[in-house]
Amino acid sequence: MSSNSIFIFAVIGLSALVLSVLVFITSKVKPKSEKKSKSLIYTYLEIASSKDTSPQKLQEAINAVVSSCPFPEKEGIKVPPNAKPYLDFIFLAVCNKHSNAKMIAKMNQDLKRANPDYRDEIDIYENKAIESRINSRF
E-assigned strands of the chain? Predict the structure, then answer.
């Protein structure tokens, strides 16, 4: 073999290695918007869980979750573990003493429109929270 063919094989091998590393790194990095919505949902969870939250602030948090925090993609029909904070938000917003029937119904409708794959889960968490509200009064 000549030195030119060894050089060409070395360049091809090195290029393949660099390309493999780049593909691996980019597959591990989450998009910025996903990171941002994930950190925002925790902010809105705090608002929904606070007893001192005003009805206006709660409504703002609900609107923000609907518009700025899309639920994570489902894995087939299975709900991924990283969807729990989003579903917990529904529970806490409904349980909040400043939420009312109109607010809850609108949140339900808007969340289902924004996240159609989660229609059943939205209903389940809303119903659990309503049941919790009823039981806490007695």
Answer: none
